[in-house]
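To fix ideas, we quote verbatim a fold written out as tokens:
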Amino acid sequence: MKERWVEAPRITGNEELARKFGVSPMAMRLIRSRAGESEAEVREYLQGSIDKLADPYLMKGVREAAGLLREKIRAGARIRIIGDYDIDGVNAAHILITALGRVGGKADTVIPDRMKDGYGINEHLIEDAREAGVDTIVTCDNGIAAAKEIVYAKELGMTVIVTDHHDIPYREEEDGSRTALLPPADVIVNPKQADCPYPFKKLCGAAVAWRLAEALYREAGVPREEFLDLAEFAAVATVGDIMDLTGENRILVKYGLKRLEQTKNPGYRALLAVNGLEGKKLTAYHIGFVIGPCINASGRLDTAKRALRLLGAESKAEAEELAGDLKALNDSRKDLTVKGTQKAIELIEGTDLKQDRVLVVYLPDCHESLAGIIAGRIREKYFKPTFVLTDAEDGVKGSGRSIPGYHMFDEMTKVRDLFTKFGGHPMAAGLSLPPENVEPLRRALNENCRLTEEELTPGLSYDAVLPLCYAGEQIIRELTLLEPFGKANEKPLFAAARLRVRSARIIGKNQNVLKAVLEGPDGTRLEAVSFGDVKEDLAYIEGRDEVCILYYPEINEYMGRRSVQLVVESWR
């Protein structure tokens, strides 16, 4: 699929700020396009530190939750943390169990089983808690949509504290207004509450738990350094849950990655080692595509308790064994994902599904834990909002992945009567429904869909035109100022035109890398690599007099030799 190339809006007047901050005008243009155009925004982007985060007590419910938990601890009450089985929920649960233990709490943790329990708190988990003598339940990365379940817990006499970051469920009234549907918990900590004054709304569940941990530590007189030890867990979750790397998230991830490189946690140390990352400079890429998938694989193919045990491991031997298990699970997950994705493509290509603007793909035999990953792969291939559904013990379950312009949670809210359970974000969602509602869901989502042809054509945004002669070590050094890269703080892309392909071939053990030598109009020659559908790209560029590329420049170090290399994102 060929994308539309779209140049980002040009920002002029960069020279003065470039001099002030000691960078080139091109680098300042890139910074201002991400940070904002004012000097204050640029300064915060470049110099923002962990000490500049908002006061945790600004977050509605933090003071009350910390106070209530301290009361329960003084009374010797038993506290149970109920997390989630993904990277955000596991790290959030680890943060809270560590913090509560440090301040004297009698606490334990339960992670729902994806297959048996489904997402978040449920009546079965509440009954288990009552039988275990639990007085107080604290949710993390879930709970905001669990009104019925929390009513049940309250009827049993339990105290419930919800910490979450998901969108607040709502009912749309006849006049178009929205009424928030909050669960009847004793305290709710979620920055997305309409009257929450906390200035940054895009924290993940683990980061919300981390701010609550800060309040607990402050009130108990625990040294700040111990709170900062927990930052790496919130940072890993922020990247792994694909949160915007802007504002506080960018500061947290930048700081957390440095802490993770020198981590004291035996579990993360072992996971870095088994993936060949020990002693290396870590980037958000390593979290999103190496470490994160290992944590998530536990909750997908086994139980997320294994990942939680890894983070809580106290000995090197235990950590190494668990890290090895998680890597093996992730390798198995990759194979199953490839097979499931191929089945989905065959179904779409062989039926009238391909004509739909919203894809609802029913794969009864697919492992339900892989539905979200496969939905993401299908979304990338067809650039359409995609739901992948599969059979589960209690009906049909699924996950959705969206595209810009399609608010998945809002669209699902319009057809909420078709679901037994649903929740999510603008770009992703989870759901359960009866089998007989699969086809009605497909029809309803497509009938309601207002996406235009332009919105259904992927646009690849690039920052600026940068001829090869300027793609040198200076700009590459300056690009590191923009890290960590991720959602909403994307790695810069440059365009270069009128390039001659001097050589091109496919290399790599898996024949998945296209390597070329490109020459600019002024004679500058640089090596380039690209990934993806390399056979199609090679066929596309062979025999053409000239090509254009979108690329990112980097330094390639091989056997002591340093050279500039272009990573090509798209060819024309």
